[in-house]
Amino acid sequence: MTPAPVIIAVDGRSGAGKTTLAVELAARLREHHKVSLFHLEDIYPGWNGLATGIERYVDTVLVPLRDGQAAEWVSWDWENHADGRAQVTLPAEIVIVEGVGAAAEAARPMLDAVVWVESPGEDRRRRALDRDGGTYEPFWDTWAAQEDAWLTADPVAEAADIRVQNSADGSAPTDVLQAMTYLSPLARLLSPELSARRGLQLRSEMIPASPDAEALFHQLYGSSDNAAWLDSSNAATAITGGTQAASRSRFSILADDGGTFGQSVQHHSGTTLVTAGSATVRTSGPFFRWLDTVWGRRAVRSPEGYDCQFTLGWLGYLGYELKRESGGNDVRSDTPDAALLFAGRAVVLDHREHTVWLLALEAPDADAWFSAARTAVAAASSGHGGGVHPATVHPGHGRRAAGVPIAPGGQAAVVVSAFECRDSATDYKRKIGEAQHEIGEGNSYEICLTTTLEASAGELDPWQAYLALRRRNPAPFASFLRFGGLAIASTSPERFLRILSDGGMRAEPIKGTRRRSTDDGEDIRLRHELEASLKDRAENIMIVDLLRNDLSHYAVPGSVTVSRLCAIESYATVHQMVSTIDAQLRPGAPRAEAVAAAFPAGSMTGAPKISTMDILDRLEAGPRGVYSGAVGYFSMNAATDLAVVIRTLVVNPDGGGGRTLSLGVGGAITADSTPDDEYEEIRTKAFGVLSTLGADFPY
């Protein structure tokens, strides 16, 4: 008996383009596999026979094929309106079944993958009549009514593994074939197709220039649905200093998911949705397990003379609720638990060397993109006197991209409505007491208690807001992300985790904060106060110990070191205490799992991590969402660099046609914390962002 085939159903309403898609998929798969193709239109018993046709298809076609046997079935004679000749469909390595009802409820247990094809109603009618001529037209409404009745009782689209928006431009087969490689039942079978995609060539071009990064991003990606700007908005330090802060600020990365290789992914509570062009594939399972399938192996070489670790790949964020995969509880969030885009082409700014690198995977559209990118760089560099980066201009007096209004003082031109806090001052201070009780009971040593400020986003433009933030609060790990209606504007100063291509690991936690003062003497006093604070040093050292343990899970034994302990770094609105932990990743260790072992950042949980996260879930009584997660990249040379999501605005659709604006803030609670001081600290941390929006901390 022949081994059971892999059965793929291509389903959708009439005229959606299922037949053309199935035929093209079969042709491409036949390059490496034996493929059989079955059309349900051959078995429907007439124009009123959808339900009966599905039943015949399941019983006489699918059941034997699932067992590896030839399917013997009776075709329908459309001219004589009667059963016709007996037919046979053989159980090849892959069987594609196509037609309305191919993935019906009775069929799905016997299918390995379901593709649902969608197209606007008027397009479907036109395509169907163009294909079948006038013979179909009198029966269109009759057949459509049967489809409606069937789909009302059987929501096939929601059960599909892959959904494709078929625009009939020829892109659907390529997009669906790529999406199929993400499905576990098909991945091993499609290894020849995967191998053909692994011979990727990275093209690069270096341009001596210092373009206005704001203008460049706006020109290249201002209209992109999904885009990312990992922005060293305090790039002046990369130019003027040789400190660790300077090294963190050297490069900025600008990209979207356009072009041949562009993809995007979102993860919600155990379900991963990957969009490749017109096709979206759904898989189940942990996100870090999925990440391990697409990242962690060296796929390209770095260009000669290129010092940045990013060589194209995935960019975006990991939300705090992914902690469910590293020992935390399962908490649902209104924002995706992770959102990334795959950049097959990107622009990298080297602020120290005053150069621009254009990177793209070799593809038919690469030449056109290089030409457009060169033009954009030239336009953004014109009149940019002396190569001065916008971040070197004092906040409130910087240049702006054309058409992007910024109010005086670096504030966003649109002021949002008043923020509300999840916790009142009384509630937050009470929770501090409860956290200290948990510490006294020995359930934790340090608890990073957070709260959330929310407002209606109203007419606020997230892009405008980000430009204002980057001027007022320049930071080495600033970022602007856009995933459809979700936008993230961050001015984070804190690195979560870096893994170099050669396996070098580094974490740089921040614990301990003081405000900046416009009075030089007072500012120096505040810095010295932080430097001498035993409480802040104790908090920082506890997190250092936690991260040493997190990195040790996948580090070469003995390689974990603390190269910097409780150093003070000063930013536009705050002084902060920073430490540095280094390690060497074990050769062959799974890099996605190494990230998961350290996630979420210990500086945002406390110690010990798992029991403290459990306490936090009870105290905070709500999700953190994007806040407290990580933002950065996963590069095709197996490198990653991730920042902790703090000092971050999140604009998110609220499901009712409006948008919410949120800002997370928090602080570390220890046994000797003073509630009034801890509450004042979260107000200090929020000040830089709120003041940019012309808003106050709510009471």
Summarize the structure.
The protein has 20 helices and 31 strands. The protein is of the alpha+beta class and 699 residues long. β20 and β21 form a beta hairpin.
Overview of this structure, please?
The structure is a single chain. The protein has 699 residues and is an alpha+beta fold. It is 31% helix and 28% strand. The chain contains 20 helices and 31 strands. The protein has a 17-stranded mixed beta sheet that branches. A hairpin with a 4-residue loop joins strand 16 and strand 17 (355-361). The longest helix has 19 residues, at 534-552. The chain starts with 5 loop residues before the first strand and ends in a 7-residue tail after the last helix. Mean pLDDT is 90; it is low at 385-410.
Sheet having the most strands: 17 strands, mixed
User: Portion of residues in helices?
Assistant: 25-40%
**Total beta strand runs:** 31
- Approximately how much beta-strand content do the residues carry? 25-35%
Number of helices: 20
Give the distance, in angstroms, between the N- and C-terminal Cα atoms: 74 Å
Unreliable segments of 5+ consecutive residues:
385-410
> Which secondary-structure class do the elements indicate?
alpha+beta
Radius of gyration: 28 Å
- Global morphology: elongated
Mean pLDDT: 90
